[in-house]
Amino acid sequence: MEILRFDRSNNKYINEAAQLLAESFPQAYWDSADEEMQQILEDGKLAFMATENESLIGFAGAMPQYGTTGWELHPLVVRADHFRLGVGTRLVLALEEAAVDKGCITMYLGTDDEFGKTSLSDTDLFEDTFMKIESIRNLQGHPFTFYQKLGYKIVGVIPDANGIGKPDIFMAKRIGQRGNSHR
Ligand SMILES: CC(C)(COP(=O)(O)OP(=O)(O)OC[C@H]1O[C@@H](n2cnc3c(N)ncnc32)[C@H](O)[C@@H]1OP(=O)(O)O)[C@@H](O)C(=O)NCCC(=O)NCCS
Which of 86, 101, 165, 166 keeps 20 to 30 A from 137, CA to CA? Predict the structure, then answer.
């Protein structure tokens, strides 16, 4: 497997990435994956791809949202036949390293729970918000555990972001200055 910078010159892989995006998040990108790929690869943002035997097996992007200090990690997708082989980890670490070089202190992301995969779903998160976050449980392979293993912490939620009982879960990690503890 190779981890490489992903940019607009990688035509072959852009199509594969759009397909992977649409398959992984049909609810969001079934008809807009090509446009989303154009945005992910815009100047000033960062993207990396994982390839094997000249096929794309995953990719990840990040964009500056607070000057150069706070970057949002979005999206991150690995092809299902390559789950749990370290591809996601390598993509996130590559992004973090490149973002630090551009002045990033905090990397953050939102990871939706639209399908009842954590204990934060189907509950009123305006009540006992922080207690519920503190005692979160992974019910069905939700990716927040993946991010926790990389040092990301849950720093908040947007209750009902995707409909009643379907929150977005915000996670962040200090990667610049005193950060970098996972490398
Ligand atoms: C989430 C995702 C990127 C993880 O990629 P991956 O390449 O399978 O992850 P890795 O192999 O690097 O896993 C690193 C660790 O996280 C764990 N992990 C990975 N996915 C997990 C999940 N869904 N639930 C719980 N733990 C998970 C792995 O078991 C591994 O743990 P270990 O170090 O103790 O062995 C991948 O499952 C994916 O693309 N899912 C679909 C799209 C998605 O949900 N993207 C994130 C949106 S916010």
Answer: 86
